[in-house]
Amino acid sequence: MALQDVCGFQETEWRHPASPAGAVLSVNPAGEIKAAWRDPFEKDVGSPLCFLLPPRQSQTRSARSSSLATVPRPFPLSHGTTTLGFVFQGGVIAAADTRASCAGLVECPLAQKVIPIHSHMVVTTSGSGADCMLWERILTREIRLYQLRHGRRLSVGASAKLLSFMLHPFKGTEVCVAATLCGWDEERKSDFDDKEMDSSASDLSTSWESWATPQQASGFLVGSKEVGGKPPQGQISEYGSTAVCRSGPRVCYVCSDGLVIKAEVISVGSGSPYAYSVLDDGWRWSMGVDEAVVLAREAVYRATHRDAYSGNNVDLFHITERGWSRRPREDLKEEYYRERRREKEAMQKREREKQEREGVILTKR
């Protein structure tokens, strides 16, 4: 998908905008205006929201296709999962269960809900499986295009805003996507990733071509006045293009209605209340890698133990400045049996202590 746009993939009669209103007016270097979607000369600077559909052949066919949308589903949609992500001094931990369910039916016990986007970012998905897979591919494509154009990775915050910008037009529809982006931002001189995403979200018709031509300014805004020189580290200038972005772990949550939340600890899904009870009690910024892994594993296990829509296995990823690494998938059934054995041993110990206390009392009498 990304390679087609970079190479200027030729349009065909089957690649037309879904409606005239969805077409994007574009201008080629010669000044010719064309109402089309991503012609070769555009170099993929149009909006990514213009999805293409085959042209309608007849009114009868279109009426039949529109009537299909009113057919009731044979079963109600019901989503359930447990995903989480949190930051700490050693990087980012992303974890999720592997049960894919549909109402009361377990469709797949080995679903992958933590998906790598690039070398330093993964996304945990919750909601409709088909919607999550589609938008994960679209996000991967757009981030790859950005990296090919600019020679650097898009930050986690900017990626979250990009996904929110693409999902917002589907607010109020049956699209169900809840994604948690977990990654490591590299320290670099950036040309306003987050600022550019804000301007794109405010105007859907704005071309992304402005990313490559940032405005230049002699100074930077600090508070309400302009000063010269370099901005403080970690601050992005209002008009300049040489701001320094801090590196480090980042976690962002994006919902299908366009909501974006940045936090240190995020859990999503029907099992998230049970996972939060463990995370709120055990999370600390100063924890080590082994302690963070145990905490994430324990949170997913507690959620799967109480939530019927979560279960089977746990997938766990650790993201650092060197990239992401995946721990072997672990069957939560084994953890359940180990806990039962620990509880049985603790109960036997209490019984022995009780008998010893009763024996001491009888001896004294």
TrEMBL record:
A Pfam match: Proteasome
Highest taxon above the source species: Eukaryota
Gene Ontology cellular-component terms listed: cytoplasm; nucleus; proteasome core complex
Biased composition (Basic and acidic residues): 341-359
InterPro entries: Ntn_hydrolases_N, Proteasome_bsu_CS, Proteasome_sua/b, Proteasome_suB-type
Chief site of localization: nucleus
Protein name stated in the entry: Proteasome subunit beta type-11-like
Gene: PSMB11
